[in-house]
Amino acid sequence: MDVLQAIEIRSSIRSFKQEQISDEELNILIKAADRAPRNGSLHLTVLQNREIIAKISEDAKQAMLSEGGWVRSRASEKGYQPLYNAPTVFLITDYGINKYSLLTAGLTAQNIIMAATAIGLGSCFITSVSRAFDGKYCVENKKLINIPSEQEVICAVVVGYPAEVDEHQFKGAGKAIVNHIK
Question: Is the N or the C terminus of the chain less surrounded, counting Cβ atoms within 10 Å?
């Protein structure tokens, strides 16, 4: 599959089979992440331990429940898990959060997502996971998965085999507004 096909069919998958992705597929995704354009450092933490993934997801959910508005409402939905019970989670971190680290993280996540789509895996971009590495969860969770204390979790990409494909699956927020000047 070429990149334009992957862009066309990509959707945010939020339901995964419990089967772990293969080592070959994992290596393809790591290579794709490493090839992303970046300004500065890149730190990936790949989680495939189900107990650790469940803990991080639950901590993020509990942090979301302590907030207000849309975030609390989303976390209150029956069965909601921020990491969607995915078998593989890529955490993207950097030393501090600034416009360059945010761009690097976004580009890295996009490469992982496009590579996953191209090899038949489902994926979803996650920002709520950062809450599991703030406040009361910060020290414990960073230590649990060996993220240096001075690094910030910016985002995650969850990956796995899609449990089912829904023709109405969310494919983005709609058409972009384009200002084209000739």
Answer: C
